[in-house]
Amino acid sequence: MAELDRPIFAIGMPRSGTTWIGKILDSHPRTLYRHEPDTWRRLDAVPLFAAPEPTPEQAAYLREFVASMPSMRADRVCGKRPIFPKAYASGYAVRKFAALSLAQKALGRAGVDLEAPLPPQPGGNEPYRLAMKSIESLGRLGVWRASVADGRYVLIVRHPCGYVSSVLRGEAQKRFGHNEAAHDYELLGMACETPQARGHGLTLDALKAMTPAERLAWRWVIFNEKAADETRDAADVYRLYYEKLCADPPGEARRLFEFCGLDWNPQSEAFVSSSTSTTRSDYYSVFKDPLGSAWGWRKELDPKDAERVLAIVRRSEIAAPYFSGESWNRAA
Questions:
Q1: What distances in angstroms separate CA 272 from CA 25, 191, 192, 287, one per listed residue?
Q2: Residue 129 dihedral angles phi and psi, to the nearest 5°
Q3: Which residue of 97, 122, 148, 265 has the smallest Cβ count within 10 Å?
Q4: pTM of the model as a whole
Q5: Any domain includes 176
Q6: CB of 126 within 8 A of CB of 88?
Q7: pLDDT tens, position by position, 203-230
Q8: Which residues pair with 132 in a beta bridge?
């Protein structure tokens, strides 16, 4: 296995465009991509709202986790479509993995439990870049950086109304197999212990008295403020606003690749083009009209809920671009 070089971490809240951005990174011929590996293998040794200074045990644990990612084979981590050709693997190996992955999924639905196939791996001297995307580790961004100091970190931010609207829609459609985010009082209680929540005077009792949209707005504030506070002015962190990517997909994707140290290539250019020129109705699809996806909340979210969300986030520095007149932003 080739030595890991500057692993790439794309981290954001759920329903924030993270899957699309992860697949843009995966489209590069030399990335070895892992989709939400910390959801599949929980990082139990590191709290969801971890202090930015790791203990020696936490730092070693996170580095071991990174080292283990190339050999992960769970389909939910390695088999997220589309599957791209890779410079370090033959076309046959990639096609074989794609076919075996589909077969394993089909047999699983029929009740036959088979081990997931191992995706193509780089050879001993093949250069590659490990890349992962996560919706679990936004509150751990500081401790990740301190533990894996040579990483490249992408902090993904979506408009809070877009996040709230998408989560409420998903919950209404019973898309999530866990506690509804707006009523996840265990997580909200942990969030209230952060310096960011204390700075806003938040308590769990106060959150319980709010509407679901308001609780989700505060969830957005706490997670994103914690990540922003722990990475402000950091040269190894790229703050990527989803709406900016939607306004100029090829231009922003190029800037993302430049930050990560990846060259722009025809395969990635083709994926960015195809993913933004075709719309699929699936809730988790990466093929969508970008501007429709970015700003659909204006028609979908109850106007009173939108007002409540904006009133909460207006105080937050990380939301400031949404109240500006920048060309990529429709003024909030």
A1: 10, 35, 38, 9
A2: -125, 120
A3: 265
A4: 0.95
A5: yes
A6: yes
A7: 999 999 999 999 999 999 999 999 999 9
A8: 9, 34
The values of phi and psi at residue 10, to 5°, are: -105, 115
Give me the sheet containing 31-35, strands edge to edge. Answer: 31-35, 129-134, 8-12, 152-157, 237-241
Question: Which residue in the block uniquely carries the two structure tokens 């509804």?
Answer: 180
DSSP assignment string, 13-47: -TTSSHHHHHHHHHTSTTEEEEESHHHHS--TTS-
Say how many domains are in the chain.
Answer: 2
- Are 169 and 220 in the same domain? yes
* CB of 178 closer than 8 Å to CB of 38: no
Pull the structure tokens for residue 175.
């898309």
- pLDDT band of residue 84 (cuts 50, 70, 90) is very high
Dist CA 5 CA 38 (whole Å) = 20
Whole-angstrom Cα distance, residue 156 to residue 163? Answer: 12
Phi, psi (5° rounding) for residue 31?
-95, 145
pLDDT single digits (tens) 47-68: 999 999 999 999 999 999 999 9
Encoded tokens for 287: 């093929």
Strand partners, 134: 11
Write out the two tokens for 61: 């644990």
Give the number of other Cβ atoms within 10 Å of residue 38's Cβ: 23
Pick the closest to residue 28 from 259, 291, 295 (CA basis).
259
> Is the domain of 69 the same as that of 150?
yes
**Residue 332, pLDDT above cutoff 50:** no
Tokens coding 248: 């100029």
d(CA 220, CA 309): 10
Q: Which is more confidently placed, 15 or 283?
A: 15
164 and 152 inside one domain: no
Residues 23 and 87 in one domain: yes
Whether 18 contacts 265, CB under 8 Å? no
* DSSP letter string, 156-220: EE--HHHHHHHHHHHHHTT--SS--GGG-HHHHHHHTTSHHHHHTT--HHHHHTS-HHHHHHHHH
